[in-house]
Amino acid sequence: MLAERIAAIRETLDRESAPWGRAPRLIAVTKYSTVEEILPLKDLGVTEIGENRVQALREKIPYLGENFSIHLIGRLQTNKVKYIIKDVCMIHSLDSIPLAKEIDRQAGKANRRMPVLAEVNIAREPQKGGIAEEDLFPFLRECARMEGMELKGLMAIMPLGAPREELTDYFTRMRKLLDRCREEAIPGTDMTELSMGMSQDYDLAARCGATMVRVGSAIFR
């Protein structure tokens, strides 16, 4: 049942993250779930959800917005920023300067400072978005000058079906990148969040220092 699956996920997160002193926040990925399937999460203590698609997010917000903090975790087109800027608590998929400029512009119009994560293409997969590892720090410095955003950390999507040893290496590299960001202390940034790990590998992500995991099918199967 739903409660048992969530309890098992939380137990795993607590166990694997013990060396870090804090379990990652559980972001329930609701891409394929209906409002009726999502609402019971609140009574089980899951109050943060992640949506991949802007249209689906807009359809669900009237029913979920008062009950959950909603993260935009999917790839975001610049022409759709205006539709979600007032309703999401964080954008996980910042991956280009044009997108950063549009988030900055729309956040200014909405009179808010939008928390964002810079997406890193740690595995260099050509079909995925994200900043190349070697381009990250120039990217962060340019984005940090935009007053409509608050850079809160990093996000990564790992290769589907990769061996666990390979995944561990990617997760570890992401944690080291976050630590470097914190050491750099770029003015205008507060790099404390690391969003990585999904249903198939959230245990490894927790072990390697994630602060947020994005779990869908392991919750709703």
Query: What global shape is seen?
Result: globular
Structural class, by secondary structure, is: alpha/beta
Could you give the order of strands across the largest sheet?
7-6-5-4-3-2-1-8
Task: Indicate the low-confidence ranges by residue numbers.
Answer: none
Number of helices in the DSSP assignment: 9
Percent strand equals: 15-25%
Count of DSSP E strands?
A: 8
Could you write a compact summary of the structure shown?
The chain has 221 residues and is α/β, with parallel strands linked by helices. It is 39% helix and 19% strand.
Describe the SSE topology.
Blueprint lengths: L1 H15 L8 E5 L5 H4 L9 E4 L2 H11 L4 E4 L8 H4 L5 E5 L2 H13 L4 E6 L16 H9 L4 E7 L8 H21 L4 E7 L6 H6 L4 E4 L1 H4 L1
Parallel strand pairs: 1-2, 1-8, 2-3, 3-4, 4-5, 5-6, 6-7
What does it look like?
This protein has helices at 2-16, 35-38, 54-64, 81-84, 97-109, 136-144, 164-184, 202-207, 217-220; strands at 25-29, 48-51, 69-72, 90-94, 114-119, 149-155, 189-195, 212-215. The termini are close together. It is of the alpha/beta class and 221 residues long. The radius of gyration is 17 Å and the shape is globular. Helix 5 links the parallel strand 4 and strand 5 (114-119). An 8-stranded parallel beta sheet has the order 7-6-5-4-3-2-1-8.
Give descriptors for this structure:
single chain, 221 residues, alpha/beta, eight-stranded parallel sheet, 8 strands, globular
